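Our working data are protein records whose layout never changes between entries. An example says more than a description, so a record of this kind follows.
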Amino acid sequence: MNEAVPLDSPDLSDHPRAVQGAIVEQSLRIDRTRMDRSATRARMHAATALLVYPSGGSGVKPRLSSINDTLLIDMGSDYRNHAHTTRQPKTKDFNISIGNEPGFPVVSCGNRSRKMTFYVPLNHHQHLQQQQQQQQQQQRHGTTTTGALGWFDGSNVNGSSIVGSRDHVRSSSSSSPSPMTFGMSDPKLGLDLVPRLGTLAVDPQKIGIVSLHQVHVNSAENAKAASNRGTLRRKAGKKIHTHHLYFCMRDFGHRIGDDAEIHFHLYDGNSNRMRALSERFLVRIARDGFSTYVETSHNCTIFTDLGTSDLNQDLYLIANVMRVGKMLHSESVKKGDKLTATTHAYRRPYGVGVLPLNDIVQFDYSVESEEKEFSFKIFQCEEKDYHQLHELIIKKASGKFQPINASPQGQYGLVVSMKLLHGELCQAKLEQPILFQGAAITKKIGFPDVIMPGDVRNDLFLTLERGEFERVGISTAKNIEVTALVLDENGRVVQECIAIASGSPLQAHYKSMVLYHNNSPAWNETIRMFVPIDKFSKAHVRFEFRSCSTRDKSDPKLFGFSFARLMEPGGATIADGAHELHVYKCEDILKVQPNVYLRLPCSAADRHSQGDSPSPYHRSSKEAFYVRTVLCSTKLTQNGDLLSLLQWRNRPEGIQDSLQRVLRLHNEELIKFLQDVLDALFALFSTDDGNSTPHSGLVFHVLVNIFSLMQSSKFQHFKPVMDAYIRDHFAAPLVYQGLLSSVQHLADWLTTTDNLEPIVQCFSSLEFIFKLIIQSRKLFAHASGGQYEDKFKNDLFSVFTSLNGMLAVQSTVQILATQEALLSNAGVVFEQLRTIITRAELESLVRSMLDAVPKDAQPALVQAKLKTIKDMVSGQLFQDDELRSVILAIACKHLRVHLARRDELRLCTEILAEVLIKLYEARAKTGEKPSNTIHHDLDTLFASIFPILLQTINILSNGGNESLVCSLFAVKLGLLQLLDESHYQRMWDRQSGASPGGTTTGSGIGGSGKELRDFIQQCLAIFKDMLEQDWMIFSKDWLVMKMAANDVVRRTLEELAKPLVYRFLGPHSFDSQLWWSYFSVAVIFLTQPSLQIEQYHETRRRKILSTHGDMRVMMGFQILSMWAQLGEHKLHFIPSMVGPFLEVTLVPEPALRKATFTVFYDMMQCEQVGAVMFSSP
């Protein structure tokens, strides 16, 4: 009998297999709610997910069952080579699947709204087999077993095949957050960090040591940021602007007696706004109650595109409950009375529920939120106040409403569950695919904070607010129903263009709810209209008013209508906001003809009306119908200012005024119609022969305003759209002259004006301006055969002369912002210029701009300069062999200055790291024999940067920033890793004065042997300091990094040995102190704790040996080789080297020990010979 762990118990510490360090994911939950129709609707919550042990037998026999709220997963031992899916009918929509990924068997189970996945490392298989054998042995002796559900015992880790690896759990997708943080450390188990790129462990042999260091840093940060075991955390990244709210209706505890509709929507309850944030989501409930509803899948939705500003303390979920049946509720609930084809079903108000979403919106971006369940009450009030009942509840005006008692079977009223999702909608679908299955998409009323280029919307949200209708004679007030429909210019009804709510199909018309005996009804119902673009300009909405009778056999009688045009005379769409419409009397629907009433005004502000036409419809000034509209369209505009610009040819005298008004626009209208706006602006910017126009200056300001708008977070995703326009649609071959002139004018204007905002905007937008300049020049050159090339380059260099002069100006607070804006865009500008100027010309521009920054510039300007260098190193320019050499030489010049002054060291380190990563990648592409340019670049970097880098590390090691020292040392190791013997040889030649021509190099290194001696001594001192501390600059669990660093140090010591032999071993050049330093460092290297591989488990030891070999043995033979080179100088190291050589013999390598023992005989022989020589006459 298998023993199962109760999953609904969050405390599993008493279970026999629950031990410290068990690999368990506690945050995953299985929620099986309301799987049957009973009143109890049992639930199962898995507070803890369990990894699975084989239970014996051959083959895979997965089973999922519910036993007293316990989830039992049972499968065979050969699960690694199988993939099955099974479904149990007793567990609705639940399934368990067993699959296989490379290196990881996968066990997953879930239903439509929940899913969890376990990843079991294959290297535990031996451990599991051993456990199974132990269980079988126990059974033979009559003892009990712990069953199929078990835990990985943390106490056995150091004795199993997984020692040295603490990366047990892997995510199924690199884009989704892992159940456990990759590389998370567990000091209690003594496990080492597994560096990963995405979901895959890195191979230190295939990645540069600088990149390896960065991976370790990122993994350590992830581990530090992770919370207690079981919390899902996202990797820290850029700010998330868009969020979505998953919603699921779980239960409805009221029995109305009629069919019911529940409309859910999000609401901003701030007293200054009080507005709906989303369209409505509709759930229909049959009169039989919840049991019918539960069979359907239309109970879930995703409220999309919520901005950070929307997620505040004033966010509410509103539930409007409406009864669908006869006019009077008492008649609907008569026994046996059902709706028939001749019975009229009216939408009647029932109640409203309001749920504050405080608990939902208080989220942490780094934590994957859980789905939470909420219950709330339904309230009712007088019908005349139904439209504002949600506001009364929010304001707690308790005297105007009272709760509705739930039915005996459901004491909780309305039950819903919600979960907050983060990021773009497409990404959320990838991360949470189960949640989106069958869920309706409920749109936001308005655009999201971030508008994506691919977003296409053409939604008109229309709210039926209220109406004022006259009482006829002494009769009672009417029961008024409004029917809304959209018609084209020919009077035909536009089909399937009205969405009464998400979750409901599109319809041709919409019928409002009906308020009993009310001539001033207020509905406050919002619908969404989706009218095709080709029909929008001529379409209109008609509202038909009917009086409904309480008698079943009486049809609702038409008594009037209103209409609203969707397009204004100037071409702008109906404006957002409230509209008061005229009510025209008519009791015959056949007389309501569009070709007649469209000649009449729809409102007091309507300019379409033909005042001379007689009206066949009576209109009372006391009657009015009020609606409110909100347009969310990427195809239509409501902005008259924008229309006046797009139609400038129709009114050329108003161009200046149109540009001024467009200059003040700062909304999505400009971005939505980007191509049309830019085409109009460039048409106004210059004449056909390339000369400026009276509007050129103002047009340039409008262009800069648009480019600045695209820098904002809301429109940052439209940059590719702008690039596509320039590449594919831009057709103004002569505007480059005016654009260059405008940029130069603003640069020269810097010191003569106090209004620097336009200048800052201009230089912040240089990327787009120069893209336009370059594309315009290419178009002109193609059309003219390359004419005026010299003039163009003269103009270009003249502009850069002005820009360099701008950088040389003394920085004030206002000027500094402009200079920073220029430098922040300089890198991308140089990258674009590469396509139209030569390498030498580009080198001149880059060098002159960076040199223009004063040596005593403010720190912010220095940072901007270094960031420009970093941008060029990270960009496409550094991929070109010739340009890489140019940029590297310029970068080394500036980096040497800042390293020597020890300012902006963090930025300098980042630049050098990026340089080394790019060089490593470039060399990897060329194979074993790097190209001459890469060889030259490494030589330049070694000669220019390495000496000053050694000095900087040496100074900072005496109390500097530890993380900075760690990064600098990684850069040093990264450079040494890329060098070969020829680089070292040229360095020794330069420092010994043996360079060609006997001259010193540009690196600043002189030509004496003393400098070579000092250089080697400095290298050895830094290595000794790091090795004596056992690489304390790296974290204790960075074993992979330490081994890679040791490999680089070992090879470097081999290269340092060569100048010792060839330059410091002669009778007049021997330097005993330098040799002693070398032997000391070599012995410390050999005896450092990290290299004592016997302390590691067999798996880890094999991994180290297969990757790096036994570096102690290699260094040991290197020491013996150097000892053999000493010859008669051995006496200088006797007996001082006896102790270090004894330490070498402690290495458990027979061949090394045997070779080292001969050294002691050699020492005795040398000492004896020396003594005899000393005592002889």
Q: What stands out?
A: Residues 1034-1177 form one domain. The chain has a mean pLDDT of 78. The radius of gyration is 39 Å. DSSP finds 35 helices and 29 strands in the chain.
